[in-house]
Structures are given as structure tokens and as C-alpha cells.
Write a structure and sequence with these properties.
signal; 5 domains; alpha/beta; 9-stranded parallel sheet; single chain
Length: 713
């Protein structure tokens, strides 16, 4: 997912090149033609280079596991991208210095002219590094990649996991009774006058293929024609049609010969052959593992004839594909219930014993292992099979439990089986969603992520592409797409059916964490080595304190605390060592003061102080010219400094007094007086919670982008 790093960087540079600070002839920058023009020229050229890299990486990412040279190239380009990001961040920081501060303009111009020259030299060094890297490979041309991705045959390889589903014994199936009966009822329904499309969808590893294949094998003899094919991500339309014809012939009881050599037929001949074969027949077709609606539209003309009571069943992990079926014929699979999970585990872990019962000595660790799988059948079956070959000692099983995350991300038999299913979903994530997806693993295990908080963090991180809608609306679309791809699970919805809270499945999160570590995208403070923390762009602290974090933090762009403590002195050190910080979320921490040095974080776009003990904000808050979100809900702040009205890019402002957390009623909370001039912040979308006054009544209409407005009295 190095392409995600490049995509983010391109967005950042595009924004800089289009910014008023650069374009305005009256700006200080325009008075430095030689140094600035050279730097801007190099930035523009590096953007072109990054766009070429991005095109190459979209193909290369899929091949890195098969080609070590490609993996090495991706690693090197990612490192270069981080170097470019450092330069871009320093550039925007210097722009901020020019636009504010108390130094005379002549001193600023002289000092920053040297800075522009220094950044220009660094950019040119990076361009040379890129040249050296790309000389080892053909320059950004996918044709130069030695290993070509061959389209998957419709039926898959003989050792495809989907093929194994045909041989699963009924006794080994657990927790499918209700879904099996529903599918059978739909397939046996003879009242429908039209061909019916049925969809079975859910995240990878839930057993969609196993369920549908089991039902198919039980009912296929009641149809005149039947076929089961696996579509996969890289299908070829003609190959898919050929495989369907071969399946018809194999399952045909009457052994009707197909005229012509299907291996040499073109698309039209293949469609006509299928139409002719199905005429006046009642058929059932299973299209397993469909990733795109185009797969159906490419072959649908072959199924317009035939008996009107025919059925086509799709399995997919993409909600958009599931929508091909009528709403009454969509079946969404969910993780197994705890009792079914336990039963499935015992069947696989103790298959060598007659009764398949867990020995009392192992039950404690066995239950913890099953709980860790969170009802995902592929994980339960895989770890159960692995444990069936381990000694039945509690110490041995304890070791497996403690190494479970390592097992998932190593080359163990367990990870190979699980990853073969789930990695497909990760590889299929579009480039614009990759950073958003990885960001979700920053939140602790089983954490219920609030929609609004996540969306605002994505916006602050710069992950969202500018479109005709607001950034928040685009971000919510991204969130829904991750849900529809079964990469995030909905916990609760509001009265309008919008996601209120979501979370990441534990197994998916482990894989996302592994990818984040590989990409240096994010590191957990408690579970990473010093050398890793020194390079991580984003860090979270899930418990305890970080007062002893003495390593270099200059790489840090985002810091999030969860149930952790931080002192004002440590925050001061962060503002000095992490001057390019763009997200600082201290929600729920024990901090009780914001130091004036916070104003040094010119690039800061998100400041989260929710549920802290902070009583006031420093006047230096007005220096945060890039701040977009200021969240001070549930604090002890009773008034805002007037300098808040200088935050021209502010989109969301929350202030709600919570003097004593022992009180949970709304009466215990209160708003703050409205700062004079708040009406000049034209980008404001959210303004909560403020005391009403006459000026507010007169001026609120000037906030043309305001969507949420909260007053307390």
C-alpha cells in the first residue's frame, strides 16, 4: 500500500500549489523570485514524478509477494516519499512563519530565502535518489514487470479454497441451519415468474462458499441444468463462459453434446451456445467470489433464455455486488455465535478423538483462543487444525494463544490459510481508501469508533479528495464503502440508518496492523521497538503514560491517546520535537493544561481535548492557522480566548463545560460565551455549545456553511 503514501503526498502538493499564499502576488513569497521560483519549480516537478510512481505502484503492489525486486523497489520509493513529505511539511511551516510572528519582514525574508535554497537542494538530492532507484528497474512502466498477472480461470486452480467446499462433510458444518433453510426455500420457490438472482454476502472467511456449495450439492439434481464456477478478482469473460459450459456438460444427466470446440469460440459464439443449451430448461448457477458488478453484466446475455423459474446465486464480500439481487433475496452472513464458534473449534482441534471434546486441562486457553477469532470460521478452523497437531499441554496452548497475532502475520500454516482469504480484501482496496482503512487500526482492539470522530480525523489527516461535496460528505462515503467491503463492522446506526459507531474485526485489525508496520504508517507506543517509534508517522498510546518517551519524535505527524496520561511538560516537549504534528487527540487523558507552546504547531489541523480536565486555552491558539477541528467537549473551559476568531480554516468547534463527571444529566453541562468575531469564520460547519445573545441572533446567518448549531441558553 505504498501507493497510499504517494496518493496522500500528491494531494498535499496539489493543495500547496493551489494555495492563496503561493498564488497571491501580494504575498511575501512573491517578493523572493529567485529562491521561491526555483523551489516551486522543483515541487511541481516532483509532483509529476510522484504521479508516475503512483501509476506504476498500482500494478506493482499486487506483485511484490511474487517478486522480491518489486518489493524492494516499493520499500525504497516509500522511504523517498517520506523524505518528500518532510520537505513539504517544512515548507508549509516556513510559510506559516512568514505570515505571522513579530520579526521584521526583512529579517523573515532573508532567513527564509536561505530556507528555500536549503529545501531546493534537498529536493534535488531526492530527485537524484529517485533516478538511482528507477535505473534498477524500467521507469514506471508496468510492461517492464517480469511477472505478469494471468487472469484467473473461472474454476480456479485445483487447490483453490473454494474447491475444497465441495468436499466438506455435513457433520463438519456448524451454525448454518437457519441460513441453509432460507437458501433452500428461495431455491425451491416455484411461484416466481422471472429468473431470480440471489446474493450471499459478508466479509471474507465467514463461510459463504461453504454454505452455498453445500446447498447447491443438495438441490442441483432438481434442476434441468446446473453449474458452479468461481469468478475471482481477475476473471476473463470468455474463460468464465467456457467454464460455465464445461460445468453444464459435466452435470448434464442427458449428456447432450455441445456442438463446436468451445476452446476456440469467441464471445458471441459462447453466449449463443449457452442460450441454446438453456432454452426451455430450469437451471441453477452459482457464481462464487464475485468482486465486481461488471462480472454479471459481462455474462448476463447468456442467461436471458431458459425457464423463468431459474436461479442464479452470487457470493460476494462487496455490498454493491449483493445489490444485484432483489432486496428479498439478499442474505448477509454474520460471525458465528459463541456456542457455534466453540463447537466448530472442537470439531477441528480434536478431530482425532471420537467425541471431539476439549479436555478440561486445555479449556481455559482454548476458550481464549476461540474468543480471539471473533466468530470468523476460517480463523477458527485454521487455528483448530493447527492445534490438533500440538501436544495437549496447557503450557503449549498458552504459548499459541500469546503468539496468535504473530501466527497471523508470519508464514505459518495458520496464517497461510487465513491470509489467502482475507488478504484478497486488503489487496482490492482502491487507492483512495487505503489510508482511511489503515487509520482504523490506530484505535484499540474492540474499540467502538464514532463515525463523526473518524471522519474528522480523516479530513484532518488529508486523506479525503476534494470533490463537489464537502470533505465530510466524501469521507462518510468512504466510510460506507469500507463497511460495504466488509472491512469495518457497523456496531450501531442512528435513526436515519447512518453509521453511528463501527469497529474493526480483530483478525482484520491484526492484518491491518501488520501492513501499517510494514508501511511505517502507524506504531503502537507500547508494542513497538524504539527504532520503529523513531520513524512512525502516527503513534497511539492505549494505556499508561508516555512520560518516558525520550526518543526522537520529529517524524511524528499524529498522536492519539486512549485511556492514557500526559503532563503539560511532556506536551511542551512534543510541541518542540514534533513541530510538523497535524493531529493531536488527547481525548480522555488526565492532562489539565494546554501550554502556550501549542501555538508553534503551525501544521496542526485537529486538536482533541474532549473529556479532559483543561480549564482554559492559551491565547497562542490563534496562531494555529491550519486548525480545522477544535474539540473541547466535556472539559472545564468556561470561556474561549478571542484569538479563536483568527482560526480562518476552522470547520468544527465544540465546547461543552462538564464541571463534574459525576453528573450525567444535560443540566450538569453548559456552553460558553460566544467570542466576538466568531462570525468571520466562514468555513464553520459545527458550532457547539454557546450561550445565546443578541449578536448571535443577528450574525448566525452569515455562517453560510453552518450545519450544526448548538446553544445552551
Amino acid at each position: 500500500m505504498a501507493e497510499g503514501v504517494i496518493s496522500l503526498l500528491i494531494l498535499r502538493i496539489t493543495g500547496i500549489l493551489a494555495s492563496e499564499a503561493i498564488k497571491s502576488p501580494a504575498s511575501t513569497l512573491a517578493r523572493q523570485p529567485s529562491a521561491m521560483s526555483e523551489l516551486m519549480k522543483d515541487i511541481s516537478e516532483i509532483k509529476d514524478e510522484l504521479e508516475s510512481m503512483q501509476s506504476f505502484l498500482r500494478t506493482a503492489e499486487r506483485l511484490k509477494d511474487a517478486d522480491e525486486s518489486i518489493a524492494n523497489y516499493i520499500k525504497q520509493t516509500r522511504s523517498v516519499a517520506f523524505d518528500i513529505e518532510d520537505i513539504i511539511d517544512e515548507f508549509t511551516y516556513k510559510i506559516g512563519e512568514e505570515q505571522g510572528g513579530i520579526l521584521p519582514k526583512t529579517i523573515k525574508i532573508y532567513r527564509n530565502t536561505n530556507s528555500w535554497n536549503h529545501l531546493t537542494r534537498r529536493l534535488r538530492e531526492i530527485k537524484n535518489s529517485l533516478q538511482n532507484i528507477t535505473e534498477r528497474r524500467a521507469r514506471y512502466n508496468t510492461e517492464a514487470i517480469d511477472i505478469k498477472p494471468s487472469p484467473s480461470k473461472a474454476g480456479g486452480r485445483s487447490n483453490s479454497p473454494a474447491e475444497y467446499a465441495h468436499f466438506v462433510k455435513e457433520d463438519d458444518l456448524v451454525g448454518i441451519d437457519e441460513n441453509r433453510d432460507l437458501l433452500l426455500r428461495w431455491l425451491k420457490d416455484e411461484e416466481q415468474q422471472n429468473m431470480i438472482i440471489i446474493s450471499v454476502w459478508g466479509m471474507g472467511g465467514l463461510g459463504k462458499t461453504t454454505l452455498v456449495t453445500h446447498v447447491y450439492n443438495n438441490i442441483k439434481t432438481t434442476f434441468d441444468a446446473c453449474a458452479w464456477v468461481s469468478v475471482s478478482q481477475c476473471y476473463d469473460t470468455n474463460d468464465l463462459l467456457k467454464q460455465i459450459i464445461k460445468e453444464f456438460c459435466r452435470e448434464d444427466h442427458n449428456k447432450i453434446a455441445i456442438t463446436g470446440d468451445i476452446d476456440v469460440m469467441d464471445y458471441r459464439s459462447l453466449v449463443q451456445t449457452i442460450c441454446s443449451f438453456l432454452r426451455n430448461k430450469r437451471y441453477v448457477i452459482i457464481l462464487d467470489d464475485v468482486w465486481s458488478i461488471n462480472a454479471w453484466f459481462d455474462i448476463k446475455y447468456a442467461f436471458l433464455d431458459g425457464n423463468s423459474n431459474s436461479k442464479i446465486v452470487l457470493t460476494t464480500r462487496i455490498y454493491e455486488v449483493a445489490l444485484l439481487a432483489h432486496e428479498h433475496y439478499r442474505l448477509e452472513l454474520k460471525p458465528l455465535e459463541p456456542d457455534h464458534s466453540w463447537s466448530l473449534f472442537c470439531k477441528n482441534a480434536f478431530w482425532k478423538s471420537t467425541n471431539r471434546v476439549c479436555p478440561p486441562l486445555l479449556k481455559h486457553w482454548a476458550e481464549k483462543i476461540v474468543e480471539k477469532c471473533c466468530g470468523l470460521p476460517i480463523a477458527i478452523v485454521s487455528i483448530g487444525s493447527l492445534l490438533s497437531f500440538k501436544e495437549q499441554l496447557d503450557t503449549e496452548w498458552e504459548k499459541v494463544y500469546k503468539d496468535l497475532e504473530w501466527q497471523l502475520t508470519s508464514n505459518s500454516p495458520f496464517s497461510e490459510r487465513v491470509n489467502s482469504i482475507l488478504k484478497l480484501s486488503l489487496d482490492d482496496i482502491p487507492h483512495y481508501l487505503r489510508n482511511c482503512f489503515l487509520y482504523c487500526c490506530i484505535f484499540p482492539e474492540d474499540y467502538k469508533i464514532k463515525r463523526k470522530r473518524l471522519i474528522r480525523l480523516w479530513v484532518a489527516e488529508g486523506f479525503i479528495e476534494e470533490k463537489e461535496r464537502t470533505l465530510e460528505e466524501v469521507a462518510e462515503g468512504y466510510l460506507n464503502e469500507l463497511v460495504h467491503r466488509c472491512l469495518l463492522q457497523v456496531v450501531t446506526r442512528n435513526e436515519f440508518r447512518r453509521v453511528r459507531e463501527c469497529q474493526m474485526h480483530d483478525i482484520v485489525r491484526v492484518l491491518a496492523l501488520s501492513k501499517s508496520k510494514e508501511e511505517i504508517f502507524y506504531m503502537d507506543y507500547k508494542h513497538s521497538r524504539t527504532s520503529q517509534r523513531c520513524k512512525a508517522r502516527r503513534t497511539s498510546v492505549t494505556c499508561g503514560t508516555i512520560e518516558h518517551w525520550n526518543e526522537d519524535k520529529s517524524y511524528l505527524r499524529s498522536l492519539l491517546l486512549f485511556n492514557s496520561s500526559m503532563s503539560c511538560d511532556f506536551l511542551k516537549s512534543v510541541t518542540k520535537s514534533s513541530k510538523f504534528l497535524c493531529v493531536l487527540d488527547l481525548e480522555g487523558s488526565s492532562i489539565d493544561e494546554v501550554p502556550s507552546e501549542i501555538g508553534n504547531l503551525f501544521n496542526l489541523r485537529f486538536l482533541g481535548l474532549r473529556e479532559t480536565k483543561i480549564e482554559k486555552l492559551p491565547k497562542s491558539i490563534g496562531k494555529l492557522q491550519n486548525l480545522q477541528i477544535l474539540d473541547a467537549c466535556g472539559t472545564r473551559i468556561k470561556s474561549l480566548p478571542n484569538e479563536v476568531t483568527k482560526l480562518g480554516k476552522l470547520r468544527h468547534l465544540f465546547v461543552l463545560i462538564n464541571p463534574d463527571k459525576m453528573y450525567s444529566s444535560l443540566a450538569a453541562f453548559g456552553g460558553v460565551p460566544t467570542p466576538k468575531g466568531i462570525w468571520h469564520l466562514k468555513d464553520l460547519q459545527t458550532l457547539q455549545f454557546f450561550e445565546a445573545n443578541s449578536e448571535m441572533v443577528k450574525k448566525v446567518g452569515t455562517l453560510i456553511n453552518l450545519q450544526t448549531f448548538g446553544i445552551t441558553k
